[in-house]
Amino acid sequence: MIYGYARISKPQQSIDRQIRNIQSEYPDAHILQEAYTGTKMSRPEWIKLYKKVNPGDTIVFDSVSRMSRSADEGVHTYFKLYERGVNLVFLKEHYIDTAIYAENMRDKIELQGTDEDEIFKGLNNYFRKLAERQIRIAFEQSEKEVKDLQQRTREGIETARLNGKQIGQLPGSKLHIKKEAPAKEKILKYSKDFNGTNSDLECMTLIGISRNTYYKYKRELKNTDNNQ
Questions:
Q1: With 0-12 CB in 10 A as exposed, 13-18 as middle and 19+ as buried, what is 166?
Q2: What is the Cα–Cα distance from 218 to 195, expressed in whole angstroms?
Q3: What is the DSSP annotation of 155-179?
Q4: d(CA 11, CA 52)
Q5: pTM check: above 0.70
């Protein structure tokens, strides 16, 4: 039996690309798919597949990152399935397919029945360790890419927040920020350009908002006055 496993990190993402890639090489694959994030630890489809897959069956992934987001978990699961006789295929990382790993585990140097055999055994063992290391590196790289993406996302959200933007708004829609109304009231109260006596810098400090947000609100307040 050939299974294709596709996973997305967010329900709103499209899973079609993964399925298309799997079916292009394995058109008869039985596709299992689900949405799973780092905060949602349960993967019911994967758990069911892991339990029912039999020796000789094949599981196809679009990439190693679809199997696991954790390097330790991924390596552990990889070798557990390998020991059960399950074939694993990674379309973007074919060099760690279980078929390749099995080939690398065979002795590269044939023993000759001479004193040099001890050296050959050492070399063969080195090649096996190298094959195992390649698998761990692939999962570690996948985990790093996920963490880097999460960090860039957090930084982008923080930058947008400091600029007074609402995350996830539709293009062209008006910003609706919970702190906008109270902040504008304080600008009207404190700013010397309205009803107060404080400078712009003093107002920013008193209100506790960023420079860009302050001047944005101030422009909107002035435009409102001009239009009245």
A1: middle
A2: 13
A3: HHHHHHHHTTPPTTPPTTPPP--TT
A4: 25
A5: no
- Measured between alpha carbons, how far is residue 208 from residues 97, 203, 214, 216, 220 in Å? 55, 8, 9, 14, 18
Largest CA-CA distance found in the chain, in angstroms, rounded? 100
Burial of 26 (0-12, 13-18, 19+ CB in 10 A): middle
- CA dist 131 and 145 (Å) reads 22
Closest alpha carbon to 34 in 6, 70, 63: 6
Strand partners, 7: 34
67 burial (CB, 10 Å; 0-12 / 13-18 / 19+) is: buried
Q: Which amino acid is at 210?
A: S
DSSP letters, 90-132, are ETT-GGGSHHHHHHHHS-SS---SSTTHHHHHHHHHHHHHHHH
CA 225 to each of CA 14, 109, 194, 218: distance values in angstroms, whole numbers, following the listed order: 46, 85, 10, 11
**And the tokens for 2?**
């050939």
Residue appearing with tokens 């422009």: 219
Q: Are 187 and 207 in contact (CB under 8 A)?
A: yes
pLDDT tens-digit series, residues 97-148: 999 888 877 655 565 667 665 665 565 565 566 667 888 888 888 777 767 7
Question: 2: helix, coil or strand?
Answer: strand
